[in-house]
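Hey,

The postdoc asked me to send both predictions to you directly instead of through the lab channel. I've kept everything plain text so nothing gets mangled by the mail client. Protein one:
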Amino acid sequence: MTRTIYRITGTDRETFLQGLVTNDVAKLKDGLVYAALLTPQGKYLADFFLVPEPDAILIDLDAAIAGATIKRLSMYKLRADVNIVETDLHLHRGTGPCPSDGYADPRHPALGWRAYRQGAADEASPQPDWDAIRVQHLIPETGVELTPDSFILEAGFERLNGVDFRKGCYVGQEVTARMKHKTELRKGIGQIHLAASVAPGTELMANGKHAGILHTVAGDHALAYLRFDRADGGMMAGDVSAKWIRVPAK
């Protein structure tokens, strides 16, 4: 997972972001803020971390979507006093005690901490199995479970502390609020137990009908995008039996 870190400066940086992203930028006083940028129709464009600095805000993005996301943000700058530049900072991560320059990952305690440093992380040092942790705790990943046709509530953003329903307007807010208050989610990310190894991308079937698609696979468990009304019974991933495991909210 390669990340690109940008720095946002200017006197309007907080109000600029507040009107665009799904979470409350004021929470930066407490540490990292996990958030997303949506289309006006409420669909996912990008997810990222906002990081507090004394006179700036860092934005930590998956490198594959970084350029397009910054271009999209820049479209909204207009005459705002906002400047966005790429930095030479590197992401460091771990699951042990949080270092003095680190921040707890706001999505789930099992994801440990994140820190932003000049030097690159030592690639030879042992790393946790991040995919296994994500599967265990139902954490979607940029470009895997989180794709341009996603709705963030189906991806679990409320449980992951990635959306604030009291902050006021942002791009895509109306659709997101309506999904929260007026509808019951019929689709979304779920954890699956597999009877044998199955490749990501395999279709899940239930009684001959499409029930979902496998995404991240870690051992005999996986994340899948499910149709909940078809996932309650047994499913098949090819010729392998699969079962939906209901993971309680943290």
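Protein two:
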Amino acid sequence: MARHTTLDAPLVVGAGVAGLTVALGLPEACVVSVPEMGSTWWAQGGIAAALSSEDSPQRHATDTVNVSGGLAAIRAVEILTGGGREAIDRLISLGAEFDRGEDGQLDLGIEGGHQTRRVVHADGDATGAEVMRALTEAVSADDRITQIDKRVIDLVMSGDRVSGVVVAEGKGRSVLQAPAIILATGGAGRLFARTTNPPAVTGDGIAMAGRAGARLADLEFVQFHPTALHAGKDPMPLLTEALRGEGATIVDAHGRRFMDRYHPLAELAPRDIVARAIFWQYDKGQSVYLDARGILNFHDRFPTVTAHAMSVGLDPATDLLPISPAAHYYMGGIDADSNGRTSVPGLWAVGECSSTGVHGANRLASNSLLEGLVFGARVAADVATGLVDPAPGARAAKEAFDLPLVPGPALQDLRQIMWDRVGLVRTGDGLWEARNHLLELDPVLRRTIGGRVAADLAIHIVLAALRRSESRGGHYRADYPEEDPMQSHRTLIDLTPADMVPV
């Protein structure tokens, strides 16, 4: 039997913007995560919020719905946009320092899909790092919050409830049980060969929730960021959308713009449209570049992008930057209501690993950090009403105790299959090929914890993409290039809990 520890406080799995916001909102909390940085630290884009006199939460909601492919959950969107000002004020009260103009007011930027300037940034292109600095310092200073540096590899059930987690301790395993479990584990960009996501973003929380029988939603909707630096790095460095908001253009090898052929907003079109336009240029054998040479004081305004470009011998102030789309954000995930409750008692989900419908089929730029802040606060308030002492009879999947952690080279094969066949432009034939290749790899992948996560989630993504025989938001089928009004609904997947053994 594994060593058991019973905690008195709710257990938050993940230490990004969503997880830390939940922890700070609870009377007591334990946060368990690996030390590696998650996506929030890497976020160059800002936080969208209706702050100016020319803006309103309603206008922000309209923009959010307009890019959602008709699938946004209106109530969730209203909660998101209505909470923008409070979220920014709360961060400032924690010491976050955002960019301001000479008048001392917050300097608001504009990004693709927004009608007006409403995006708050920190140090030009380091918003995520500044948000995380403020949150981690607040958590570290709060003696109500316990931090545990361990990797969670599966959920523990007691009866029909989630009651704890299995954590890795070197080669050993132990069980932590708690009165509530909140998953804030981020997205799944590492399932694709080209991604802006750091190595820790592997979809673990989504996969383990599925194994516990939680309903998953909208798994086919993957957002590919249009402008990642295409220079042989993994993850691919992000070239923030704020660059295009400040006048950077997308050009071919001859320096000619082409985005106006795809959308009247050209470079400021919604992300899915820009990303596919770049993909189609590559499909014609043409390279694509971001031309940011017209942005004044580039090095001072965008230090993170400057550092990424300089590391591969490019100067954004004088050179064209080679770009490619890359898997960036996951609209799909664990189906959750606006309080983060999942279909399994005792389990909440928040942030990118959740799917509340707030983004629909396509996320509006700079709504992701806002989601973690707004819904993190709501989850914290709701968890306090749903605490239950862990019951006896804990069970977990046997594989969580038997398998090594680190996936082998088969994971790289999976990532390439997903990029080639389940990427920006999909077809029925390609998806069936992906399914068959994944099933061939499945026995090898399941020899490790990391491989099992990838195998579970990848096949569900493929099957969801096969079910949606239309194009909508982040899901584009070349064999069904139009939206089908009959499919203007979310994709929900109800899973049977995996076989579990007493622990």
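Summary for protein two, as requested: The first helix runs from residue 17 to 25.

Thanks,
C.
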